[in-house]
Design goal:
heterodimer; A: mainly alpha; 3 helical TM bundles of succinate and fumarate reductases; B: mainly alpha
Chain lengths: ~130, ~130
């Protein structure tokens, strides 16, 4: 293979963290976490199709303290990635590029993630379904 | 000295030679598809009476639910695959490590997509 002397992404540790850079890396981290969550969803469906015994064993993990906390983490990762994804799509359309707009939309994404997450948890636990 | 033109030498090098435009477009198309699909997924989970085996089976067996579940999971895996591939390309060392990571990612993505397809179809067709 030919070695190209192309640069890698900048090393993040040399920069002072700012709202913009922190939200940017959070988009990547939440995206990666959600890929793992997607695999977990696939395995859950596989267990569902495999019968009550396999499904029951997975349910035990999902209902444990760590399972429930991981699912709540996945919920917030999904909501953050969803809201910030809309922000990215707006940028792709050429909207909201000024520095004040970028900070405003960033703060809005964080607020929306928290509000939607809390609302969803209230809705979920007020229903009959219990994770 | 090469007799190739400047354009001929440049073709196939860089991002365009690796289908970057298609990658970019599909990442956005699946992102747009996932907006309504992930909202559907979150809300439909709230509508379940319980997460007992029989209850969830009866829910997933409904044709609309199995269809949307397959659209959601397939868009999710494709979008996730494209995203993780970019992370690997950005951070992995150039060479066999990078190739190994990307091949491994393909294996994981294909495995989970086929497993999901079989699981949902089995439930939809036979219960």
């Amino acid at each position: 293979m030919v070695k190209h002397a192309r640069p890698l992404s900048p090393h993040l540790t040399i920069y002072k963290p700012q709202l913009t850079s922190v939200l940017s890396i959070l988009h990547r981290i939440s995206g990666f976490v959600l890929f793992l969550g997607g695999i977990a969803l696939g395995l859950w469906l596989l267990a569902l199709a495999s019968g009550p015994e396999v499904y029951g064993r997975l349910q035990l993990h999902m209902q444990s303290w760590y399972g429930e906390n991981l699912l709540i983490l996945l919920l917030f990762a999904l909501l953050y990635h969803l809201c910030n994804g809309i922000r990215h799509l707006c940028w792709d359309a050429g909207l909201g590029f000024s520095l004040p707009a970028v900070y405003r939309s960033g703060a809005a994404v964080l607020a929306a993630t928290l509000v939607l997450g809390v609302l969803y948890l209230l809705l979920f636990y007020s229903g009959a379904a219990r994770a | 000295m090469s007799l190739k033109s400047a354009l001929g030498r440049a073709r196939g090098l860089g991002a365009v030679g690796h289908d970057a435009t298609r990658h970019w477009i599909w990442q956005r198309l699946t992102a747009v598809a996932l907006l309504p699909l992930s909202i559907w997924f979150l809300l439909t989970l709230c509508g379940l009476e319980s997460l007992e085996h029989q209850e969830v089976l009866a829910w997933l067996r409904r044709p609309v639910v199995s269809t949307l579940m397959l659209m959601f999971t397939m868009s999710l895996y494709y979008h996730g695959h494209l995203g993780v591939q970019v992370i690997i390309e950005d951070y992995a060392e150039e060479g066999w490590e990078k190739i190994t990571c990307i091949v491994f990612l393909y294996l994981i993505s294909f495995f989970i997509a086929i497993a999901t397809l079989i699981a949902v179809l089995k439930i939809a067709v036979t219960g």
